Amino acid sequence: MADKKIDITYHEYASLDELSEQDRQLANEAILAMKGAYAPYSHFHVGAAIRMSNGKIVRGANQENAAFPSGLCAERTAMFSAGAQYPDKGMESLALAGGVMGRLTKEPATPCGACRQVMAQYQAKSGKPMSIIMVGSSKIWKFDRVDDILPLIFDSI
Ligand code: THU
Questions:
Q1: Fold of the domain built from segment(s) 11-148
Q2: Looking at 29, 64, 75, 92, which residue is catalytic?
């Protein structure tokens, strides 16, 4: 038996000003995307923005439904839309932001497991790393690849 360790490096920024121009733009797009949330049940508004390999930005927001499992997270709304609009382009980066009634959380919002699995698939599809930017009002986290938020990724059988 051997004990193994998984090390994950990520980047923490104190404010949007510390981000690169490109990342800051995407983070701001995610904040703007929160306006598209339809969350009459949780009142938690989540916005996501994806930068495609052709430079296009695709936004998404969570969409809830009276039949709860029929709703969808912001990240998957954005990824499925991006996949449908630009099937031949890769998703280079995805930013997300969330908050109750549109007020950004202090800590960065983090993606659910199902969204991470979908990110993994689109990253594998493009063959290039997809970075993930999680935005909070007190700090921002950036992960360089989906593997860093979903260790031991399920790929294919
Ligand atoms: N939600 C997202 O949009 N993304 C996540 O990664 C986690 C949760 C949404 C789903 C639901 O509409 C609301 O946040 C509360 O869970």
A1: Cytidine Deaminase; domain 2 (3.40.140)
A2: 75
